[in-house]
Amino acid sequence: MSRRNKIALFLIILLGVSIFGYSLRDIKFNILIRDFTTIHQGWLWVAIICMLLYFLLEGLVVKIFVDARLGHYSFKSALRIPLIEQLFNGITPFSSGGQPAQLIAMLQSGIDGGRASSILLMKFIVYQAMIVINFLIALIIGFHYMVSKMSYLSLFVVFGFVIHFTVIIGLFLVMFWPQFTKRAMRLVMIPVRWFTKADRVNDWIVRLDTKIDLFYQESVQLIGQWKLLLKVIVITFFQLMCYYLVPYFIMLSLGYTHANIVMITCLHVLIVMVISIFPIPGGSGGAEYAFTVLFSSYITNSSKLVLAMLLWRLLTYYLGILAGMLALTVKPDKIKLKSEIEIK
User: How buried is 61 (Cβ within 10 angstroms: 0-12 exposed, 13-18 middle, 19+ buried)?
Assistant: First the structure.
């Protein structure tokens, strides 16, 4: 990690501790400890296992894509990719650092930059598509509840959906209509020329054209492998379900055994959509507030509500950051390309 990233990590942890401290301001410490000691550990372990499965399944997706396109990729190296993504998503605004960090991690395994970029984009497309589908289902089931609890938050939910939907449409345009995408990109570059030297803008256009062509070629090959694509879609669906179910199992661990699994899962989907549009890394502040407000009708005990929020945040956010830090210390295996395997 660079010095800048270490500073960002320190500030994120400091912010998290401050938010946790603020959340506990009206809670007696002895009551919080009592609630924690009476947790049903079995259900809490299920929540932890869900998060571990979330990481493992994304690593499996990486391995499937790389094995199909390039050669043999060890699961250790494949798992390292999403863990590093978790770390850099967690310490950068709008989770902007995850994609570049994954690319660097794949380059360390000897994967060509162009191929690595295409594989990551394919993974990202499937992931985004599944997020949009899950969100539409959650919107139908849980949006009315969110509006009744926090009408202003519903605007953030809709705005978050528009952003995700726009991203997936843009990626589909590159996949199926590259020439239109190139023309649109040139239109976007027109105002950029007002503030940047023409030579630099022309260089950007050439590079983007190359990336669009490469991505289109990779997309055509992937679509032709529909069985592979279907397998990745199914794995990604279960991966997201593992993540979305975490609050439900946390509630079960706190004794709320009559919680509606469908509604709780849908509310978590909506919260995740809200978090995605906050510029602060991890949506810190907004995530904790949205969770406590939306789940206050289900967890009426204030101490248990704060404890549920703390456990949820530790598992879905800080656990990924910790795992990513550990992944950085692991040396990746070099990929065995198909040509090398055939020679042997």
Answer: buried
